[in-house]
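In practice, a research group might receive sequence data for several interacting partners and want a quick structural hypothesis before committing to experiments. The following worked case mirrors that situation: the sequences arrive first, and a predicted assembly follows.
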Amino acid sequence: MSTVTVTDAVKKYDAVAALDSVTMTFREGELFGLLGPSGSGKTTLLRAIAGFVSLDRGQVLIDGQNVGGVPVHARNIGMMFQNYALFPHMSVAENVAFGLEVRGRPREEVARRVNEALAMVRLGGLEQRKPKQLSGGQQQRVALARALVTRPKVLLLDEPLGALDKHLRQEMQVELRRIQRQVGITTIFVTHDQEEALTLSDRIAIFNFGRIIQEGAPMEVYERPVTKFAAGFLGEANFLQGRVTAIEPNGLARVALDLGGEALCRLIGGQAGQTVLLALRPEKIKLSTDSQAGTNAVRGKVLDVVFSGNSTTYRVRVGNQVITLFRQNLAQGTVAPGSEVVLSWSPDHLVQVTP
Amino acid sequence: MKLGSTLLTAHLWLVLAFLYVPIVVMAVLGFNASPLYALPFEFDPVWYRALTSNTKLIDAGIHSVGIAIVNTIIATTLGTMAALAFARYSFRGKTIMQLLLFPPIAIPWLVIGTAMLVFFFWIDIKRGLFAILLGHVALSLPYVIVVVGARLATFPHAVEEAAATLGATPWQTFRRVTAPLLAPGVIGGGLFAFAVSFDQFVISYFLAPAGVTTLPVEIYGAIRKGFTPEINAISTIIIVVSMGVLLLTARFYRFGGER
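A structural hypothesis for the assembly, expressed as tokens:
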């Protein structure tokens, strides 16, 4: 088990910064998700840790040791590639054995550890198959066994589940989590799938334009996004613009919303007259047909209704804006498009974000 | 629909007949007893027996095979290295160099042969087997580079990176991952190089000194002097060898992508 630290990492391609002064620490044994749109720098960071990308500035430290001059093959890392990159000319067993053989391990040890690794990913019995004869999920297990059999310090996963269909993906998420816990290896993975990042990670970091936008436990980042980008990238959010009219004695701020109506929320050092941007998650909004508009309650008209099994998505016009909300399908039935409704929420669910 | 497919099939057979009937006739007459190609056909392998005592033809055959083998080794090695360089590195003049690979395939061999003759004379390389070999290597290199390059174009680069993360040094990666995956392309290119050299006439003819010949040159000479079905016999042998090599090439090259 190891810690990985990246300090002030900078990597430019031509004039574009793929990494723009990134500093972060991956703790021992944690599963850390790097999340962001393509070109945000997350993959560059992963490849810099692996040693495929050399940084223009800054350092990568594994267990406190600068690995800047260490070539990939001497870094003792395990990596799983997007399309698995299995060796097509080798059998499953030969693929897994490769890392041990190039290290010159004795034959009995190689055989024993290959068997252990294949048992761990539940692939016993398929040793002699070629990668092409395996399903996508099986190929992925081989890739995982191959990456872990050498007992690397760090496991790097590049879009690990990207090539699988939805059902298999969820199954492999559970599997990946189980194996990672069992081995206890520090694991860093890159994904652009927010759901995957939320379900798998102990901690996540959201990247954009080569910078870390926000870092923390998934729930913390989801519930308290700090920027509009973070709020919109991880989950969905409505954004309400407004102007602070007063600060109450209890510390809550009164905000006149641009879409009409008034909100009460907690701000960080707000003052009267200031304009603010507030994020509001769709599932935090209550929809009712029989309550009054007021503070944290605005009147609107239902535009459309999309039923999707466990919940229903409503789009509601409020003033000059369209608000999206999710409503759990309890026994109440749906509200028809065109209905006049009131949307309300708790002050805690309005999160101030920077634009 | 039915008529269309019947016509197409007939057309295909006509084309194949056009290509192969002369060859088959030649091969059959090589087994005919008459030295004047007189019919009726009378089976007799006399001309094949005669070949075994024709030292000029045998010497020429040995030269041809020897040059083809050495040429294959040199052209395949150099060509594979060049293809790797084209695929892996970006360097000054790369595009121009890649474009310049194709004209030697298209320029008439007569022109290339003349150019080589003049050039070798100018830099004082004497006519002979060595000059012929140089000519063949130059001629077959583009084929090797193109064939190996095609294989490299679809080469999954990530497997080399995977090997590195697993602790393989660059040399181990090359030996255990790159080379085996590249092998079908290299073998295909090598068979091409062999075929190009073995069938080569014009350049060999220009660069051969008096008394030293390769098989195609020797056959040409024999035909001009008036010939017997011995020529049919040797030609049949050449065709069998060449077609065998090309069939192997097709096999490796076609299935190469799937292995």
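Before designing any experiment, note the following. The mean pLDDT of chain A is 89. Helices of chain A lie at 42-50, 92-101, 107-120, 136-148, 166-183, 194-200, 218-223, 228-233.
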